[in-house]
Design a protein that fits this description.
By secondary structure, the chain is of the alpha/beta class. The protein has a single domain (2-253), classed as TIM Barrel (Alpha-Beta Barrel). It has helices spanning 2-9, 27-34, 50-63, 76-85, 98-108, 132-142, 152-156, 158-163, 174-180, 190-206, 217-226, 236-253, and strands at 14-19, 38-42, 66-70, 89-92, 144-149, 169-172, 210-214, 230-235. An 8-stranded parallel β-barrel has the order 1-2-3-4-5-6-7-8, surrounded by 8 helices. α2 (27-34) runs parallel beside α3 (50-63). The longest helix has 18 residues, at 236-253.
Length: 255
């Protein structure tokens, strides 16, 4: 989905959400109806299997919403399979250093930028590739690769990670970062704000987008004012809990 990638790399404001558990394909249509532009499908903590990812990706493609997989780790087999399914990009967790970022690009990009395995009569080509040489160039151009910054080490290396060719932007994971700093759950304390601000500063220097995963709108606006442009607002679980609690509260308060 080149339109989504262009918006991301141009540092336009882009807003999406995360799928944590629900895998019925039509949830993608609901998310599109709400107005989100992309979905992170969480295969790091979530228990989605490949057939479920394939169904979600097919609906995403049909309805024009970006499907980005948060992979369990930087590993060739899983990256190869989900890209061949036809997803639009990868969210790469726990990218603490340049070596991990380079390895992810190596697995996700075709030669000469990487060493992604070539199997073209599959969903990612719509089963139609008149020229393999042209297709691999197109795929390398369109795939979205976002490195997740989730530790003090990653913050310290964030400029170099964002500089790796093929890495399109950085996404802060505040929960893991706070835990790594010995402050679990304290994602907005001053020390965290300083660390996250450094990540934003490094991205701005490189004209690379920076984003965050958070369900708190006030905090998201705070980071937007600081220079972030890519936002994952909570998850489908968060939406269900919030909406359900508001309904219960409204029901009893209206008596």
């Amino acid at each position: 989905m080149i339109e989504l990638k262009n918006k991301i790399v141009n540092r336009d404001c882009v807003v999406g959400t995360m799928l944590s558990e629900f895998y019925t394909p039509n949830i993608i249509r609901l998310i599109k109806c709400i107005g989100y532009e992309f979905v992170f499908i969480d295969c790091e903590h979530g228990y989605f299997d490949l057939s479920q990812i394939a169904n979600l990706a097919a609906v995403g493609k049909g309805f024009g919403i970006g499907i980005i997989i948060r992979v369990p780790s930087v590993q060739r087999e899983f990256i190869t399979k989900v890209l061949d399914i036809g997803v639009d990009g990868l969210l790469l967790p726990q990218i603490d250093n340049v070596e991990l970022a380079k390895q992810a690009v190596y697995y996700a990009k075709y030669c000469p930028e990487g060493k992604r395995g070539v199997s073209t009569t599959r969903a990612h080509t719509d089963y139609n590739h008149p020229s393999v040489a042209e297709y691999v160039k197109k795929a390398n151009k369109e795939i979205i690769l976002l490195a997740q910054i989730e530790s003090k080490e990653a913050v310290e290396n964030s400029y170099d990670i964002a500089s790796v060719p093929g890495i399109d932007g950085l996404i802060v994971g505040p929960n893991d970062m706070a835990a790594d700093m010995g402050k679990p759950g304290q994602t907005f304390i001053e020390e965290m704000q300083k660390q996250i601000a450094l990540v934003i500063e490094n991205c701005v220097k490189l004209n690379k987008p920076c984003g965050i995963v958070d369900s708190n709108i006030e905090r998201l606006h705070f980071w937007q004012q600081k220079g972030m442009s890519l936002f994952c607002i909570g998850s489908e679980i968060h939406m269900m809990l919030k909406g359900g609690k508001e309904n219960i509260k409204a029901f009893y308060s209206d008596k």
